[in-house]
Every structure is written in structure tokens, then in C-alpha cells.
Amino acid sequence: MTPGILDPGSVSRRAYLKSAVAAGGSVGLAACVDRFDSNGGLEDVPQGDPETVPSRQHAWNEFLPTDDHGNVRPPRHHVLGYVDLADGVDPEETQEPFADALADLEQAFEWSNEGLLFTVGYSPSYFDRFDADLPDAVDLPAPESLSDLEEPELDRTDLLIHLASDRPDAVIEAEEALVGDAETANGQEVTDVTDLLERVDRRTGFVGAGLPQENRDVSGVPDDAPIPEEAPLFMGFMNGFREAQASEDRVTIEEGPFEGATTEHVSTIEFQLRDWWHQENHFQRVAKMFSPTHADDDLVGEHGERFDSDPRVAEVAEDVLETASQRGVVGHAQKAASARVDGEPILLRRDFDSTDDDRAGLHFLSLQREIADFVRVREAITGAALADETSVGRRVNNGILQYFFVRRRANALVPPRPLRSFPRPDP
Ligand code: HEM
Fold it and tell me: Of 56, 103, 215, 260, which shows the fewest CB atoms inside 10 Å?
């Protein structure tokens, strides 16, 4: 059996396909090979039409399913491609073939969770090669450490490509056609740009009911952790409720040549969930994830099923310091919601769990109008003043900070679609 790929006889079909995404490449594709239709396309994966794809690359929500309460359900499988422009290649010479390759992907896959959704982002390092500066309306600093509790590596590749689909074989095929060896994706030819690009790193993950259960056999998750089957993430609670997410409009840059763009931040996070699942009981987990009030009043249920579309953190967000002083513990979502602006969330979170390197983790991918918005929320979560002024520790009892560790950070600009192929900073 190929290393990295589970034996299909020993695990469910879905877990088998997930392991294929983590392995990627021809090995991952080989694991999906029986899913081709007679035309060389992937069975039941619809093809698309570039003419119908919206102008904002991050316009995904209306092409995704919603649950009974109107909460958007993200695609289940994800690949992040960290890619450089190959040595000596001029970005302006690359514009046309790369634009063609991306349009080919839109032809190959319907713009939806059943086909493929993707964004192409450009890092501050990419823009550094030009003499011109980005316009004032674009806030794109280099990534940096955001608290003295972390020493992340700072990602500096030129491009950050996010591929997402409910179909694991769709994300692998798209990735291989763009930056790997494949000439086609979903039965369609894709313009060859492999000489122009160099894949430096790839990270993968999944989000959705059942997937944490099926992928739990990695370090960081105790064997007997009672992760509910319905939970989309390893920590056992639903996330992404409508009222706790910024809208796509709220995260869009509204002026200047990059009107219609957004900024993207990715924190690569490692989990240590032994204490989360062993030393904590459900009451404590609810208090730390949401707030002590949520635990007292039993607002959450087992995994968040009592919330409909609102995790009801707006009220408790006003009392973060008071909660920390009186209870000695404060909630993650409670702190995060204290950074809302005019009562509205400012981050559109599209994060997903990961088993890269056989470790449990999470790729915290968020979109916001300015990177400063992300920094604002992250400072609320770090809660430095809480540790100074109350008995809450810098990590302990301070939301969920005890259980996750930031290993890498990346920032990127996700331009509007007409500028998504190797833009100049002054287009
Ligand atoms: C490390 C793993 C993390 C997990 C498992 C997690 C989980 C959650 C959950 C369950 C909620 C409440 C429900 C909802 O999403 O609608 C929430 C809210 C939120 N989280 Fe996290 N989170 C994590 C990390 C982070 C990080 C690193 C940030 C940003 C720096 C962040 C920012 C937010 C924000 C902005 C909200 C919404 C607050 C509001 O209602 O305004 N989270 N998170």
C-alpha cells in the first residue's frame, strides 16, 4: 500500500478520500481513480462556465448550501497552495497564461461546492518586487507575530491559492492541473503554467459533520475524545453561525483600483486537545468556547444545535472583563465578539481542521477588508489586559488559548477576478 494513503478496505469511503487530499499529487489522485466517468471527468462533478462566475473571487456564499437556519455550510475539503513565481519569470509575461489556466478551471468545474470554489491571493512579498506601491485603500502588511505567546514562521511565498469542494478528488485534480503534472482537470484541458510557477508548500484540511470523527487518528486528539458526530471541527462545536460572520460586502475593499478585492489571513494552528477532552467537562468546554453565561443557562446544547443562526455572544461580549474578574474564566467567542464594529462581525471565517503531518490542527483562514481588522480581533482574543487585571491566565481559562498554538502566519490580497492574474500594485 502507498504510504500516506489508508487502506480503503479498513476505513469508510469518506475517510479514505480525505486521506487522499492530505497525500495529494498522483498518489492522492490514484486513490480516487475509480471515480472517473467515461469522458475522463470525475463522476458526478459538474462542469462550469467562466461567464457566470461573479467578479469577486470571494463570492462563495450564494453558491454554497445553507442549513435549516440559513447558516452557510462551507465546502468539506480544502487545499492551500503556497506557490512562488518561478525564478527569473516576469509576472507580466505570466498574466495571460495564468488567466487562461484559471478560466480553464472554471470551465472544468461548476462554481459551487459540488464543483470547485477557489481564490488566488498575492502576498506582500509578491508586491515588493515592483517599484510602485499598493494604493492606500489596500491594507496589506507583511505577516508578523501577533502576541508574545507565539513565534510563528512567516509565510512569504508569492501566491496563496485556496481550492475548496465537497469532492476531495475535485480539489486534487484542480491542484495538480494548476501547479502539478496533470494536463487536464475533470476531463478538460488546462493551460500549462507549470514552468512559470513553483509549488513550495501545500496544506490541506476538511470541515463538516462526521469528518473530525473520521480523521481523529492523529496526535493532538485523544483516542477516547467524545467528539459529537454532528460536530464539524475537532473541538466539538458548530461554528460559522450567520450572525457571527461578516458578510461578503463587509470584507470587500470598496474603493480604488482593487475595488472588489478582500484581504486574507491564514494562521496555521496546531492543537493539543488532550486536556480539552480529558480534564474539562462539557460545562467548562462551553464556558471556554462561548461564555460562562452560556454554560449556566445551557444555551448551547451538545454541539451548538440550540443556536439556530445566532450564538448569542453579543450580550456577553460587553462584559468580558467583568466575566473574567467574577468567574476566573472567559469565553473565546465572547472575546472575539467584543471586537465587532457597530455591532457587526468584521471577519468572514473560512477555517478548516487539518491532519497535515499527522497532527491535529486548524488552518484559520479569514477574510476581512483590512488586515488591521484581523489584528483587532486577534488582540481581543489574546486578552492581554485580562491576564494583567484578573485571575485569568495568559493561556489558562482565557478562552481556548490553552489548546491551540500558532505555527505560521500568512497575509494576502485577493484581487477581484479581472485582476487575479499577477496584478501590478498600481493596475
Ligand atoms: C483555534 C481554533 C478555533 C476554534 C475551534 C474556534 C471556534 C469558534 C466558535 C465555535 C465560535 C462561535 C460560533 C461561530 O463561529 O459562529 C467562534 C467565534 C469566533 N471566532 Fe473562533 N475559533 C478558533 C480560532 C479563532 C481565531 C484564531 C480567531 C481570530 C483571531 C477566531 C475568531 C472568531 C470570531 C471573530 C468569532 C465570531 C465572534 C462574533 O460573534 O463576533 N477564532 N470561534
Answer: 103
